[in-house]
Amino acid sequence: MIESERHRVILSAVQARPVVTVAEICELTEASEATVRRDIATLHMQKKVRRVRGGVESLAPPQFVGLSGRPFEMNATRHVAAKRAIAQAAVEMCADGDAIIINGGTTTFQMVHPLANRRCLVFTNSFPIAEHLLKQSKNTVMIAGGTIYREHNIVLSPFENDVTRNFAAKRVFLGAQGVSKLGVMEQDPLIIQAETKLIGQADEVVLMVDSTKFRNRSALVLCPLDRITTIVTDDGITDAEARMIEAAGVALIVTTPNRANEARTG
């Protein structure tokens, strides 16, 4: 990653979290600590960020966070290293010019930082994802119309003839509450409704779930496992779970999170 790309990722990170550590930036940019510290010093001199002990902070932290529901904020701090690694692998599937759909969620939200260096056409039902990409990237962003459901941070329309039906994507990226042999599982009918619409508008369906989701269960099935094209997860997945995915004819990408950084950054 060249210097200008690293700078965009750093600015993206501090927009999402007012204070970001050197270790976290090293993970996001895959650069050395010395390189990251030079980047922070440069951005500090340019008055784009403020250098602090062990990291960097935003000069103007966002004041309005009312559209972030409590479950979203709570889940955003769980399995962070795994979510970052999964998101990085997902973005590596995207090329400039691709039309993609990103469903709302804390794992899919982590895509916004590596997407800072892409020029894709992004359709999303997530207000936080749309807002971040508009401010911190060159991607073209379209957002679904409808009601903002604050708890889940998604925009959902009750009408079948909304703009979602007019968007054709190469891939849709989504998370899940759980994964089993029955299929992809969610806990809320509203999420099922939103994701069913999005899945129908893409050539490929990419499921982004950390390995703990293979042990979670829910009462609602979004779709059978063989409807998914690719599953991106972390190295906590078991051999039995990998065999289940293979038997369904689904491609599997296993990432290795940097859990040492997660331990240092809390």
Q: What would your notes on this structure say?
A:
35% of the residues lie in helices and 24% in strands. The chain is an alpha/beta fold and 266 residues long. The strands form four sheets. Strands 6-5-4-9-12-14-15 form a seven-stranded parallel sheet, sandwiched between helices. It has a three-stranded antiparallel sheet with strand order 1-3-2. The longest helix has 14 residues, at 3-16.
Anisotropy-based shape: globular
- The radius of gyration over CA amounts to 18 Å
Query: What is the strand arrangement across the widest sheet?
Result: 6-5-4-9-12-14-15
Average pLDDT taken over every residue: 85
- Strand content range: 15-25%
Q: Count up the helices.
A: 10
- The amount of helix comes to 25-40%
Give the beta-strand count: 15
Structural class: alpha/beta
Distance between the termini: 26 Å
Quaternary structure? single chain
Flag low-confidence runs: 63-75
Question: Which sheet architecture does the biggest sheet show?
Answer: 7 strands, parallel
Query: What's the SSE pattern?
Result: HEHHEEHHEHEHEEEEEEHEEEHEH
